[in-house]
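# step 3/5: fold
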Amino acid sequence: MSLRQGTVQSLTSPLDVMTDQPEQHDLPVTFLGDFSRKLIVNTFFNLLGRFWSFAAAILLTPFIWGHLTRGEFGVWVLLSVFLESFTLLDFGLGSAFVKFISAYYTHDDYDRINRVLFSGLAFYAVQGVLLVGVGLAVRGLLFGFFDISGAETAYVYVLLASGLANIGAMFLSVFRGAQRMDRSNAIEMAMSILNVVGAVTVLELGWGLSGLALNALVNAAVLVVVAWWSVKRTMPWMSLTFQVDRPLIREMFSYGAQILVSRIGGLVCFRLDKLIVARFLGLAAVPFYEFSARLSALVRALPLLTMSALIPATSELGARNEKEKILHTYLMTSKYVAMITIGLVAFVVLEADAILRLWLGAGVEQSVVLVQILVIGYGANVLVGAASQTGAGVGHPEFDMRSTILLMVLSPTLGIVLVQKFGAAGVAAGTTLALIIAAIYLLVAFHRNYLDTSVVSMVREFHVRPLAAGLLAFLAVTLFHRTFPGVDALRDTRYLIPVKLALDFAVFSAVYMMFLVAVRQVTAIDRRNFLGLMNFGFEFMRHPFREWVKIYR
């Protein structure tokens, strides 16, 4: 089935059965029955969990900024990048857990799941030892290259934390593979609270960088214990008895190796730019780039969370060979992600200065232009997220892998070329250009090689009108400020900035949605399905235990 089949109305219906049979449009909001309810609820829990984590990070950032010097904050950012880099030394095995556990759980193959876990634990135990050894061996090289000093103890803690974090993430993957996002997110939310409390405590005690790193280590150790205890409590048949399945491990590594390329690409694009800033502009410039990257990452994360349940969901459908339902899920997700993402990006570009003033106060004005540049590239990356997640879920990660290779080449190359002439803004521009080019390639490759259709019709139906709506809403708020200049002046007083943002958002969202309704991007079917979704959510909130059992039975 291609995008050219059926009517535009059927393709844009989010929660109905998207087929050419009109009478099926009278079906309930759950367009795929139990599968749809599970997908919706899992997405809700992912939204809740990640929003909680991001909110904690956003609120914690000004506190850390206030307790560290610019240089120390820059070092902490680099240590975080190192930690994420070291976790990639699992050669993609971590990325394979959700995929394989989901497929085995679908067929109640618990013995295979136990083999997956024990093999992973054995691998990560060996990898952790090697990780610490290699990390210590290259410490002098890294510290000399980035001119880091006084962070030796913190660096050791970070190495130990990264080794334990892999094991904790592996245990959480059991819940994700079983599509129990309620459990995995509950644990992550609890850990985020522990992290915030620990970070505040160590900084108030004056422990600085070493205290933050020690807090990360403690959190990683607690996660391992809590995650495994929760897995055993929820699924008593789970065990870590000696069961090494070498063919299975080879298969997981084969799949994970392709995903690993994507993870490395994400590291190169979303982390290497900070290393370029540190190397060419100094550690003191890193915090301002980090602020813009964190805000842009938050904008990127919100719509991405609507796709977070796609890999286990499409893996389940792929195991059942239900390609038509996979297509329906992909189209539904693509449409709504496009509307959410484009609207968010346009609003953040418009309000970057006010948001930064509210978040961090005065003195970070140089981050404004960086946000406005980066958020466009991050938004382009989100628009192809459904293609990336669906491809990975159905066992075709090669599309994302090839796009990522392109990204890995373009991002550092453009960043290094442009930083020498335009400074931090040049690095941001290089990252954005690379993200846009890689996104176009991924979308074209996925549609041509998996969906067997042109990408033009999809872009025309799902992207063009939201782009026009975003531009019109942007101009409407600008006109609103010129008509009522006092509203824009509210950004000069920090405690009044929320009032300005609320007024601007009211104008922006009204114009944005009215335009989409006027051009039939939002149809009567969409509105009916939205009301059905709200009714489903209301019932879930009224009788959470009953609905929980019904969905996860």
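# step 4/5: annotate
Residues 119 and 496 are 55 Å apart (CA to CA).
# step 5/5: archive (pending)
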